[in-house]
Amino acid sequence: MKKIDWYIVKKFLSTFFFAVMILAVIACVIDYSEKMDDFAEKKAPALAILNYFKNFIPHISALLFPLFVFIATIFFTSKMAYKSEIIAILASGSSFQRFLRPYVIGGAFLCALSLFANHWVVPNANKQRLAFEDKYVHNAKTVSDRNVHLQLSKGLYVYMQSYDYVTNIGNRFTAEKIDGTLLKEKLFADHVSYDSIKKIWHLYNVVIRENNGIHEDLKYLNSLDMKYPFVPKDLLADEDVKEALTTPELNRYIAKEELRGAEGLNFYYVEKHRRTAQPVAGFILTMIGACIASRKIRGGSGLHLALGILISVLYVMLLQFSTTFSTKAGLNPFIAVWIPNILFGGLAYYLYRRQIK
After folding, report:
1. pLDDT (tens digit, 9 = 90+) per residue, 139-189?
2. H helices within 3-119, ranges in order?
3. Close Cβ partners of 183 (under 8 Å, ≥ 6 residues apart)
């Protein structure tokens, strides 16, 4: 690390963190203006609101990390080019590859920082943020999704038409025990309710059908208590839960939902792969920004920033399209998340080769 490396790295990091601070404050103001009526209506305490925004800042910063990195790179590099500092560096005998070394170091540092934050710090902040929103912003969920099917263990499947969280009553409950292709037992109940103290399910108007070879037995019971490994909240398809799980917790959650035969798991796979792909995107955009803004042009910083914002928008749109294809059309989540990085990585290499000629 030479003095010029430290000079560029300091400019890079200071501009990045300044951009994060400014845009995070703007995002907090906008979010507060949208939710202030909810805060007043539900009488949210001031300390709880401050804690909410403390956890909102990591969320919005991680969400816009590639944009922050790219704009910071474009901004300070364009300023250096406008002041002819880059011309002086290259004229001293340094190659363009050597000039990019501090960008590689700074980009790699921010990439590593974002990786750690995405996998552990941001999910922990989101737990508190989402808990606050559930209490003071969103209306409480009163009814579960309809026609919910769950696989609780190998060979045990349950179905419930719906569950009313206000009355604590579920309708049309069925539990099936299957051995291979043979239905061993099927239990019907008109109504069910959950006892959160004893952690058991109360079943009413129960019919139990047992198959033993060619024999079939039917039992009728007014009520029955059963212990099943699920709770009423498991009947909700809450996609926000993925944001509040660290990566090890997310892996365990995906494994549990796969066992239960849950649908829409691509949302969770996309989130899992995005946490790694997004920091890498920041590094790629750093290289693109350095290659674009290192040339002194007549339009100056304004043209560089406009071009940078355009490329950022294209990246976000491409990521949104690919993830939508994954969640709605079944595209492999890993491919969907990494397609923008592959394409923009190719663009970065093209711009790099063009600059060193």
Report:
1. 777 777 678 888 888 889 999 998 988 888 999 999 999 988 888 999 999
2. 3-41, 46-63, 65-82, 85-91, 96-99, 101-116
3. 176, 177, 211
